[in-house]
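Quick one, probably user error.
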């Protein structure tokens, strides 16, 4: 080890294994484990008056890593900084170089994929740290700190501590809350359709009544539907008045970018945005493939570009030619949308020859699912379009017009690998029409009035929210997953059946933010800020200028808050038509740490409180099948005054048996056999500790039974 004079610093330990194999014994590859410095958590750490000067500190727990890095840097003759090829990666590289005073010595190495050729080429052609990228990341970090650190305490004053606001997260919450309001206000409207079963030459096919006397037929109720049905039966049979056949071409979808990968992984695999990115990171950094060793299976996964390298395109076409035939080879060149950074290629397999089935034995089930999705999407994007034929038929009976259509595949092309809808109406794909010509008479076998109701707009899923954010220019590929995770962690949003629901807390937070900062937490403003950060990266704008232009109107709004504080606080309190049983003052609904509750309006003189019925329902004791070990009565899950769970006897207070509530999740400490218990401190803080008295594990975030995809 002492003889290794070339040092490569990456941010991830997984990367070290993959790169070490490619670079050989002359190189030492070590990991910084992400950022080494950041803004401290307990203060603003930005001197606005001194030109937004940040105060960076070493991240707690990094001391040992820094000592190790210092030793290796002192021993090295050549130093390569090989963190990820994006703004965060550039900032990590810069902070390492600056902290160890090696800015003049260190070389920046970039690779879009972790393959032997890409890594060796990166080492052979190193570059300098891109200070424009570093400044763009710095501006974003300071913007986010200013908003979070200045606005979050305002929410604490109005609702309760522990809430947060974010420059982008709060705009995402606004989008979700607006959709929630649209759904709540939606009034379904009844309408009817007339579905037909027609027959020609012994073949039965469906159709639908669409027009009456040349005008669109709208049927509001059952009586009208039955009246029209009777008139149609009298007018039958139907006569074919028009047959139109069109040849259509359906192009394959482009290869994945970050947002489309998250959308498809949500839709097809049920993965959250966070889970998708964690697994993609593993596939990018390298997976052990038996004798081949660690191999990076996909290109960099944070990208908004559909561009594909010529070598990769040629390799895909060769694979298609050999495995599907020449006719399946496509020639579409995808163009990246305007405004995209286009710094990286699309997400694709590094080697198309690494088929999903060939690497399956070395992957976890989830890694395999995502890799297969990426591999198939990329290969399909390089295949020929599908050739379709759509037949549209119009039929008349008296004054009524019916229509039907059918779409069939003449040549499957990319559909051989990637299934998509070939018609707007999925039923159309299944319809098989008999041979029909104008003037043909068609028998009416059945007419069926069907009741329908208009539907509200659908709730967002994680995938469709990412697509919406991307379409409005809000956030960037590197931030989508974190935005959603924060909304879920803060309990502003919850997931039910893959759909995102805004909680009462989320609605209240959004309402207050829109009252206080309507211009700041607004889609177009946020999108413009993203564009300005891009301009910093491109050298078109100075990072301090972006912050100055943002901070002036933001600061004015902060000043306005104190003037409007009493009115804003009042808007969070809901009056009831009941009086306090202790002092006679009116009762109100207030917000507290655990949600809404009923309290006396004479607070703090009178401290009477009671739970809201809806909150009380959530905290109703739950009877268990397990029996009390002391008296044999059923045990129950109960809640303490702070919302923490515990188990006690259903005969309480006669029987005082109780014990902590076990989450059933094993303690994460190696070799520990305990389970994590839900506990409450003397000050009411809920935390999680191990059931083994000899284990000191403690966590303040609720544990999840889902295993970490990284370890």
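Nope, works fine. Designed sequence:
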């Amino acid at each position: 080890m002492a003889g290794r004079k070339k040092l490569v610093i990456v941010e991830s330990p997984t990367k070290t294994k993959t790169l070490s194999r490619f670079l050989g014994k002359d190189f030492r590859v070590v990991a910084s484990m992400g950022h080494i410095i950041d803004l401290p958590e307990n203060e603003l750490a930005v001197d606005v008056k001194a030109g937004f000067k940040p105060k960076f500190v070493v991240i707690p727990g990094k001391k040992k890593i820094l000592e190790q890095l210092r030793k290796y840097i002192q021993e090295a003759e050549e130093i390569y900084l090989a963190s990820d090829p994006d703004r965060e990666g550039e900032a990590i590289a810069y902070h390492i170089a600056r902290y160890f005073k090696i800015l003049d010595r260190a070389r920046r190495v970039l690779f879009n994929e972790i393959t032997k050729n890409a890594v060796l080429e990166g080492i052979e052609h190193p570059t300098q740290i891109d200070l424009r990228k570093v400044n763009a990341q710095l501006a974003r970090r300071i913007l986010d700190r200013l908003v979070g650190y200045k606005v979050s305490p305002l929410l604490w004053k109005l609702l309760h501590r522990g809430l947060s606001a974010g420059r982008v997260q709060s705009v995402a919450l606004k989008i979700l809350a607006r959709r929630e309001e649209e759904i709540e206000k939606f009034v379904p409207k009844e309408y009817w359709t007339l579905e037909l079963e027609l027959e020609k030459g012994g073949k039965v096919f469906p159709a639908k009544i669409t027009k009456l006397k040349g005008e669109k037929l709208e049927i509001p109720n059952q009586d009208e539907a039955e009246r029209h049905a009777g008139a149609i039966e009298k007018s039958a049979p139907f006569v074919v008045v028009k047959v139109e056949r069109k040849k259509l071409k359906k192009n394959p979808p482009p290869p994945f970018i970050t947002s489309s990968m998250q959308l498809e992984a949500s839709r097809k695999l049920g993965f959250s945005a966070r889970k998708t990115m964690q697994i993609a990171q593993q596939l990018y950094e390298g997976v052990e493939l038996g004798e081949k060793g660690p191999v990076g299976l996909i290109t960099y996964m944070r990208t908004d570009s559909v561009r594909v390298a010529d070598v990769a395109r040629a390799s895909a076409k060769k694979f298609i030619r050999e495995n599907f035939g020449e006719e399946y080879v496509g020639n579409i060149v995808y163009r990246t949308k305007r405004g995209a950074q286009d710094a990286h290629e699309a997400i694709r397999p590094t080697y198309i020859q690494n088929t999903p089935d060939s690497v399956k034995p070395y992957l976890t089930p989830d890694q395999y699912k995502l890799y297969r999705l990426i591999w198939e999407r990329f290969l399909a994007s390089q295949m020929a379009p599908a050739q379709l034929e759509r037949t549209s038929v119009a039929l008349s009976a008296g004054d009524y017009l019916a229509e039907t259509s059918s779409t069939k595949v003449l040549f499957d092309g990319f559909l051989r690998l990637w299934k998509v809808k070939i018609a707007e109406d999925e039923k159309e794909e299944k319809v098989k029409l008999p041979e029909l010509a104008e003037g043909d008479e068609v028998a009416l076998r059945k007419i069926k009035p069907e009741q329908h109701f208009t539907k509200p707009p659908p709730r967002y899923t994680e995938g469709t929210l990412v697509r919406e954010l991307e379409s409005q220019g809000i956030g960037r590929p590197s931030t989508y997953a974190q935005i959603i995770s924060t909304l879920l962690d803060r309990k502003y949003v919850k997931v039910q059946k893959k759909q995102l629901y805004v909680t009462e807390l989320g609605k209240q937070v959004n309402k207050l933010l829109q009252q206080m900062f309507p211009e700041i937490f607004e889609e177009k403003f946020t999108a413009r800020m993203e564009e300005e950060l891009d301009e910093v990266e491109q050298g078109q704008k100075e990072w301090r200028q972006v912050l100055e232009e943002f901070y002036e109107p933001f600061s004015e709004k902060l000043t306005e808050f104190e003037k409007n504080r009493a009115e804003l606080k009042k808007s969070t309190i809901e009056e009831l038509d009941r009086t306090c049983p202790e002092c006679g003052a009116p009762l109100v609904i207030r917000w507290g740490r655990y949600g809404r509750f009923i309290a006396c309006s004479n607070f703090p003189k009178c401290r009477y409180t009671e739970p809201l019925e809806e909150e009380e329902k959530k905290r109703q004791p739950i009877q268990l099948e397990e029996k009390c070990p002391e008296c044999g009565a059923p045990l129950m899950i109960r809640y303490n005054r702070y919302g923490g769970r515990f188990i006690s006897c259903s005969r309480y207070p006669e029987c005082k048996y109780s014990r902590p509530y076990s989450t059933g999740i094993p303690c994460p400490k190696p070799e520990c056999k305990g389970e994590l218990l839900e506990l409450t401190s003397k000050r009411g803080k809920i935390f999680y500790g191990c059931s083994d008295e000899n284990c000191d594990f403690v966590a303040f975030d609720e544990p999840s039974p889902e295993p970490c995809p990284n370890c």
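Residues 689 and 698 are 5 Å apart (CA to CA).
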